Amino acid sequence: MGIKHIRAVYKKEMQDILRDRRTLIATVVIPILLIPIMTFGIPLLFSNTQQQIVIQTQDIAIVGGPSENFTRLIDGSRSLQVVEIDKPIDEAIRNGTIAAGMGIPIDFDDRIANEQRVNVTVYYDASSQTSNVAYSKIMQFLSMYSKVTVNERLVDREIDPEILSPIQVFASDVATEEERSGYLLSLILPPLLAIIVATGGMNASIDLTVGEKERHTLEALLVTSAMRRDLITGKFLAVFSTTLVSIAFIMVSLTGSLGYISTFSVAEQQMQINLTLQTSIIVFSILSLMAIMIASLGMALASFAKSFKEANNYLTPMLFLIVILSFGSYGINIDDVGLIPFLVPILNVTLVIQEVMVNNLNVFHLVLAVTSTVVVSVILILIASWIYHKEGLLFRT
Amino acid sequence: MISIQNVSKWFGKFKAVDNINIEVEKGEIFGLLGLNGAGKTTTQRMVSTVFQPSEGNIIVNGFDSKINSSEVRRNIGFLPTEVGLYDRLTSREVIRYFGILNDIDHNQIDDKINDVLERLSLSEYADKRCGKLSRGNKQKVAIARAIIHEPPVFIFDEPTSGLDVISARAVLDFVKQCKEDGRTILYSSHSMYETEEICDKIAIIHDGRILMTDSIKHIQEEHGSLEKAFIATVKGEKSWE
């Protein structure tokens, strides 16, 4: 009778879930809306903002000795403009009157003409994006100015300026277009995918377990001929299916978004995005495994809780932990990572997805991540099942 | 049919039920009377296998609840105090779900659902979602859910609690009908009048202990009414123990 009961519980739960607007929103609507925002909107917004600041001309001030020649050269660069200020330079930077400033000596022109060293102080606000861009532009300008000045001095002495550059460097990136684009994507997407999957699974698991207590249906359910093990299995499969559907929507949405915006630039890097069928299948599979674990975790915690409120109290810190583990991959260089991170649930999933996205999947890492996730899932399912057999825990007052 | 033998139930250090003994014969309605927290629900939960007794044995239709709990569950229909239904499912879907979980044959389930819906005057609400039903009709769906597999033993925990007069009357009439059909019923309530009306025998339970067990007829002969006997017993003015 086990299979029949499991099928009945599964069918009923799926019916219930499909009629629940809240779960449908978490499972279908959020992935469809969120993935395009994540893959397209955020990078584009970031890229546009950064680019706009770089394109704009920043106002800067020069304090100390006025140098018409120097000021004219800066204004001529078109990316910076020297303005007059009537307040201290640090205050002008802090309140946004100017983006940055320079302090030069009174005898700037004379010292340059006499081939003496000149000390220049650059003022900027490291906490301001505009000021940082102005700082970079000033540093670039000073470097160029310094190089041109040296060249002029060498030419005056009839020395070839190239004598100062015995080595000329040309960088050649051996990464393929897929790897370069995958690298950027691999930083952004895996943690967010993990969090979306976790959120969807948690919602369904709360509704199916502690929901029975809150609706007062648990007692009637426990008195049927169905074994408690069959009840929990049916419910678990329903939570898992819901999460799988959520992942399927995520993958469809992801593929669609990436297909639509085949190229866009992020932080001056051109990003060619390519999610092949093979990578999609691997990402789908590893996320599905994680979904099993999240469903088990959610059910174990929610079964223990007396109410939705209490379940949320348990699951909210758990979500924080999931977020921390998901973004833990940020601090790890996947080219030089040991085996231990691949044993840590959730972190291992984000790391494997990273490897997939940079086209550098290590099969041993995949096996470790799969094994670890399956083992943790089995333990959590057993805990949930055990709670369903403990009347003291099930009917806590 | 139901034999509760020296049963006690502990929740940690709290003794909710203290060495009780009850015998319910086939075709009898046996009432458990007591104040809130007296131990009625815990006793019924033990009979229905939701809880296991800490001490003693419970035999239902020949099956020991500790050794053969699944057979005990097959032989009972349990209506808990709280009417818990799935709001997004229709009455028919809820009854079908519990029918399958109680091993009703696939070929018979539709006929049985229609029968029980008709018996409880629920046919016109069969395809309405439970969330949209009145309190009385929800209680009827909960009863239908509990009896769909036609068990020989029914356990009703305060089935008229919170119902209006007409709905409560319908439930009481249904319980009487079940007795006429030969069912054995363990019925808990704190309403003296309904207990007096439908039960054959009662046990007064207080602080987890049974203070009195007797037939309604005998109690009425001795005290005039069940209410008087109950108050006297619980206040400790007179005990038949």
What tags apply to this protein structure?
heterodimer, A: 397 residues, alpha/beta, D-Maltodextrin-Binding Protein, domain 2, 4-stranded mixed sheet, two-stranded antiparallel sheet, 14 helices, 6 strands, 7% strand, B: 241 residues, 6-stranded mixed sheet, 4-stranded antiparallel sheet, 9 helices, 10 strands, 37% helix, disordered C terminus
What is the topology?
The complex is a heterodimer of chains A (397) and B (241).
Chain A: H1 2-18, H2 21-55, E1 58-64, H3 68-76, E2 80-82, H4 89-94, E3 100-104, H5 108-113, E4 121-124, H6 129-156, H7 177-214, H8 218-222, H9 228-260, E5 263-266, E6 269-272, H10 277-304, H11 308-327, H12 347-357, H13 363-389, H14 391-394
Parallel strand pairs in A: 1-2, 1-3
Antiparallel strand pairs in A: 3-4, 5-6
Chain B: E1 2-11, E2 14-24, E3 29-33, H1 40-47, E4 55-60, E5 63-64, H2 69-74, E6 76-79, H3 91-101, H4 109-119, H5 135-147, E7 153-157, H6 165-180, E8 184-189, H7 192-198, E9 201-206, E10 209-215, H8 216-223, H9 226-234
Parallel strand pairs in B: 3-8, 3-9, 6-7, 7-8
Antiparallel strand pairs in B: 1-2, 1-4, 4-5, 9-10
Q: Biggest protein-protein interface?
A: A-B, 27 and 34 residues
**Average of per-residue pLDDT values of chain B:** 89
N-to-C span of chain A: 33 Å
| H and E order of chain B | EEEHEEHEHHHEHEHEEHH
- Runs of chain B in which pLDDT lies below 50 for 5 or more consecutive residues are 237-241
Gyration radius of chain B, in Å: 18 Å
Distance between the termini of chain B: 23 Å
Based on helices, strands and strand pairing, what is the structural class of chain B? alpha/beta
Shape of chain B from CA axes?
Answer: globular
Helix-strand pattern of chain A, N to C?
A: HHEHEHEHEHHHHEEHHHHH
Fraction of residues in β-strands of chain B = 25-35%
* Spatial strand order of the main sheet of chain A: 2-1-3-4
Task: Output the structural class of chain A.
Answer: alpha/beta
